[in-house]
Automatic annotation (TrEMBL):
Coiled coil feature spans: 673-700
The protein's name: Solute carrier family 15 member 1
Organism: Baryphthengus martii
Record carries keyword Protein transport: yes
Functional description taken from the UniProt entry: Electrogenic proton-coupled amino-acid transporter that transports oligopeptides of 2 to 4 amino acids with a preference for dipeptides. Transports neutral and monovalently charged peptides with a proton to peptide stoichiometry of 1:1 or 2:1. Primarily responsible for the absorption of dietary di- and tripeptides from the small intestinal lumen. Mediates transepithelial transport of muramyl and N-formylated bacterial dipeptides contributing to recognition of pathogenic bacteria by the mucosal immune system.
Mode of membrane association: Multi-pass membrane protein
């Protein structure tokens, strides 16, 4: 022992920290992996993400049955941890871009192989993490003797702290790893590293757990109470169906039909459990909203500005707000909020706390919808199927007037300036009439539609140069990246480099292709003209923008450039997500913590595992609800989907409040004490009857 604690628990705590780091680290980047690596849209990414989470919360029931009925907790943890580690390794391998990038263009050539490996890895992870979930904490509790209640209680506090520490660190670190660039043939977001580190931590977790093997107390499997309860319920239903005729007298409760096979104590305990499980029915709707932090809210963050001064926050790092606030809010609520409510003589019962938690979660999604409305205002309008958009860049020293004929619009463009994009029906636009001073040029147009174009013009005394360029960009750059291209407004050929990206040689008045740059950074722009090198540091291009940079002058130590904004950067700051995270964390504190406390207070001592399984099942069903609602709603606007989820939870909140109003609290200890008393009386009567019978026999 060490400080009165069994040495074995230190192996268990380290094991849990590494496992939670592995799980939450992988999960933090999962939805972005689906979207940007597997190239799925937002809806499919969200659907698969929540399917995975649901599976992770369904498998604990399987793990508990295996541990209690066959293998025992130790072997169950070891075997399923091996499965878990293999799953994490498969996920890391599935994200290696170079695995199928035969043409070395930066994109995998066989996405189906990557998808197949990813799904295999996720299924193995779900079996592993779910299967060991009900075993590890209980196995830790088994290490203490009956005289170590104080140490056991403190162990569970440290155990819970290790869970939160692993979750917090992993959601900070793995998004940073993902943001790095790595690869053999081409540099891409480093998903292999983001998944590889959690895989390594899971391997460490397994090794540490096995290393303490000789120190553990290993209880033999004693049968699973969930199986007994299920059999009792099943027999009662079957027996009631057999005796449905009116000739059989009714019984006080339908579970009493199990009395022919099961003892009175098990039936009474099962009644108490079912009473609580009935209250669980509305609870999955809360988890349907709560678990969207890792899907919809993360995707929302990709369209926002993550610049926090000297720190650049990745979209998937915003999830860290929740564990940080949990660490702060739990003691504040327990030590300050609840005592204040009690002083105000408000009877804030556990079921009322749960109701308030559901209401707050609904409010958090209203806040998310308001943020989404502001984001939508910053997203540019792109051309529809029969539309084209044109912007004008004047590269000359004189102003010009461009008329879109026949008689659609007329625009004046001053020297070295550009306009925004203008939308036209492709069937209506036929000619461009460009005038500068006494010089005129007419340019026929026949645009294909559903695309953007840039008209570059350069008037001079003799003529007007005009060229209509196809932009080929009809959506904002994703993941906060920026697109940059260059126009050479010099009379000589130039070679342009920005950061590590070379744009090659540009002839006079020619334009480069767009190149992708990570958001929020500044890069050195270098231009070589006639063996003379000139450079300048670019301005910060923000996040999610596209720019055309015009090279106007290049002399020794002097580079003159002009920025033309093609797509504006994200302007809604990620900090605006903090209120919705704060409200949802407050909801979690009063809902989740109270829910577990209430469940334990209302359940018999040997039925805690049944309610734990039921609680985890509500999380799984909640994630399934996301799939159903998101798939059936067919809403085109994301803010509307947030409002829909908020409204559904509010409706469920009202239903739960009504159910809670009619709920009668019970004391399981009193019920079990009454059962003990009845059993003693029955035993006493049986003893007296036996003695009387023995006395009668002796007289004979």
């Amino acid at each position: 022992s060490c400080f009165g604690y069994p040495l074995s628990i230190f192996f268990i705590i380290i094991n849990e920290f590494c496992e939670r780091f592995s799980y939450y680290g992988m999960r933090a980047v999962l939805v972005l992996y689906f979207k940007y690596f597997l190239q799925w849209d937002d809806n499919l990414s969200t659907a698969i993400y929540h399917t995975f989470v649901a599976l992770c919360y369904l498998t604990p029931i399987l793990g508990a049955i295996i541990a209690d009925s066959w293998l025992g907790k130790f072997l169950t943890i070891v075997c399923l941890s091996v499965v878990y580690t293999i799953g994490q390794g498969v996920m890391a391998v599935s994200s290696i871009n170079d695995l199928t990038d035969d043409n070395r263009d930066g994109s995998p050539d066989n996405l189906y192989l990557h998808i197949g490996l990813s799904m295999t890895g996720l299924i193995l992870i779900a079996l592993g993490t779910g299967g060991i979930k009900p075993c590890v904490s209980a196995f830790g509790g088994d290490q203490f003797g009956d005289d170590q209640e104080k140490q056991r209680s403190r162990f569970f506090s440290i155990f819970y702290l290790s869970i939160n520490a692993g979750s917090l660190l992993s959601t900070i670190i793995t998004p940073i790893l993902r943001a790095q660039e790595c690869g053999i043939h081409s540099k891409q977001r480093c998903y292999p590293l983001a998944f590889g580190v959690p895989a390594a931590l899971m391997a460490v977790s397994l090794v540490v757990f096995v290393a303490g093997s000789k120190m553990y107390k290993k209880a033999l499997p004693q049968g699973n109470i969930m199986i007994q309860v299920s059999k009792c319920i099943g027999f009662a239903i079957k027996n009631r169906f057999r005796h449905r005729s009116k000739e059989f007298p009714k019984r006080e409760h339908w579970l009493d039909w199990a009395s022919e096979k099961y003892d009175k104590r098990l039936i009474a305990q099962t009644k108490m459990v079912l009473k609580v499980l009935f209250l669980y029915i509305p609870l999955p709707m809360f988890w349907a909203l709560f678990d969207q932090q890792g899907s919809r809210w993360t995707l929302q963050a990709t369209t926002m500005d993550g610049n926090f001064g000297s720190i650049q926050i990745q979209p998937d790092q915003m999830q860290t707000v929740n564990p940080i606030l949990i660490i702060i809010m739990v003691p504040v609520v327990d030590a300050v909020i609840y005592p204040l409510i009690k002083k105000c003589k408000i009877n804030f019962t556990p079921l009322r706390k749960i109701t308030v938690g559901m209401f707050l979660a609904s409010l958090a999604f209203v806040a998310a919808a308001l943020v989404q409305v502001q984001i939508d205002k910053t997203i540019p309008v792109f051309p529809a199927a029969e539309e084209s958009q044109i912007k004008i860049i004047n590269l000359g020293t004189d102003g010009a007037t461009v008329q879109f004929l026949p008689q659609l619009q007329s625009v004046n463009v001053t020297s070295k300036e550009s306009t925004g994009y203008m939308t036209f029906k492709t069937s209506e636009l036929k000619l461009l009439h460009i005038t500068s001073g006494n010089t005129t040029t007419i340019k026929p147009v026949n645009l294909p539609g559903e695309d953007r174009h840039t008209l570059e013009i350069k008037p001079n005394a003799a003529s007007i140069f005009a060229d209509l360029l196809l932009d080929g960009v009809t959506s904002k750059p994703e993941e906060g990246n920026n697109l940059v291209r260059f126009i050479n407004n010099l009379p000589d050929d130039i070679n342009v480099t920005m950061g590590d990206t070379s744009f090659g040689t540009l002839m006079p008045l020619s334009v480069s292709n767009y190149s992708l740059f990570s958001g929020g950074r500044t890069d050195n722009i270098t231009v070589i003209r006639n063996l003379i090198s000139c450079s300048v540091i670019s301005k910060s291009l923000g996040y999610g923008s596209a720019y055309t940079i015009v090279i106007n002058e290049c002399t020794a130590q002097n580079l003159s450039i002009i920025y033309s904004e093609d797509i504006p950067p994200n302007t809604v700051h990620m900090a605006w997500q903090i209120p919705q995270y704060f409200i949802l964390t407050c909801a979690e504190v009063v809902f989740s913590v109270t829910g577990l406390e209430f469940s334990y207070s209302q359940a018999p001592s040997n039925m805690k595992a049944v309610l734990q399984a039921g609680w985890l099942l509500t999380v799984a069903v909640g994630n399934i609800i996301v799939l159903i609602v998101a798939g059936a709603s067919k809403l085109s606007e994301q803010w509307a989907e947030y409002v829909l989820f908020a409204a559904l939870l509010l409706a469920v909140c009202v239903i739960f409040a009504i159910m809670a109003y009619f709920y009668t609290y019970v004391d399981p200890n009193e019920v079990e004490a009454q059962l003990d008393e009845e059993e003693k009386k029955q035993a006493k009567k049986a003893q007296e009857a036996y003695e009387n019978q023995a006395e009668a026999v002796s007289r004979m």
